[in-house]
């Protein structure tokens, strides 16, 4: 599911959850079992609230009166409906975070796979180049051919043929002694 579709779905779920929350509130006022649950829940919530406030203010001996039924039903139903809305919104946030984390993990795994493939290709190319270098070591320049930039030994074998020496040219300094120096040549095409 794309990011836009996910956000629209989350917005639709939040919008639908508001009428459901109101239906929970009305159901709490009409259903006897649900009313009793809301009354008990609201009185426990009220008791905890009063005790915590008393401890914060330093009053230890507090007499707690229970809420009347209408107020208890209203507070219990409101709390349950708000809890429902909060749980819907929270679950959507957790789902979106999970989805983005999974997407990032999949991208990292794909990148690791790509790196592994490229490393294996590099090893394959290295092996092929080693094979080419062995064949070049066996190569002898034919009689009568005198290359200008390739150094030919007395036995006819070619030296300076590896990839790091392709741009090396033989030059001489003022005393006539041969010296190899790096020159900027056009890049040779890759093998």
UniProtKB/TrEMBL annotation:
GO biological-process terms attached to the record: regulation of lipid metabolic process
Region annotated Disordered, chain positions: 161-191
Residue runs in coiled coils: 101-128
GO cellular component, one term: mitochondrion
Biased composition (Basic and acidic residues): 178-191
Keywords: Coiled coil
Entry keyword annotation includes Coiled coil: yes
Family: Belongs to the OPA3 family.
UniProt protein name: OPA3-like protein
Organism whose genome encodes this protein: Lodderomyces elongisporus (strain ATCC 11503 / CBS 2605 / JCM 1781 / NBRC 1676 / NRRL YB-4239) (Yeast)
